[in-house]
Design brief:
The chain has 135 residues and is an alpha+beta fold. It has 2 helices and 8 strands; from the N terminus they run ααββββββββ. The longest helix has 36 residues, at 2-37. The chain is rod-shaped, with a radius of gyration of 33 Å.
């Protein structure tokens, strides 16, 4: 009887060990299957266009990212009424600028860096006349 108890204990230990190894193997297989769902090629999709238009739920254009025929690139932002309120651009010679517009789409502030590196800041009145600028 004592030999039978010893054999039964050994068999139970082996069974527990086999269950642990099986659980680890099953978890490893599940992890491999889940990792194969998202391959690196799927993450790095490229979308190419000359213009992107972002519209709100009403169908109104709220933002535009576009290339100009001269190689410039710009990002325009509009308010709920569709009025252009901000324009960020990079000119063909690499000079960046930012223009801010009022509710009537009149330019009110402009910040520009000329190609030679000289910055310029200008503030306009409601009629579009420059009221202050540096330099």
């Amino acid at each position: 009887m004592e030999g039978l108890v010893i054999r039964l204990d050994r068999l139970e230990r082996e069974n527990r060990r086999l269950k642990r190894v099986g659980a680890v193997a099953l978890a490893g297989i599940a992890a491999l299957v889940l990792m194969a769902q998202a391959t690196p090629g799927e993450v790095a999709k490229v979308v190419e266009a000359k213009q992107f238009v972002l519209k709100d739920s009403s169908g109104d254009t709220r933002a535009v990212l576009a290339m100009g025929p001269d190689g410039s690139v710009g990002l325009g932002l509009s308010d709920e009424a569709g009025t252009a309120r901000a324009w960020l651009s990079l000119g063909p010679q690499g000079s960046p600028s930012l223009a801010l517009f009022d509710k009537a789409a009149r330019p009110r502030a402009t910040l520009r860096l000329w190609p030679d590196g000289v910055p310029r800041l200008a503030l306009n009145d409601k009629d579009g006349n420059v009221i202050w600028s540096v330099p």
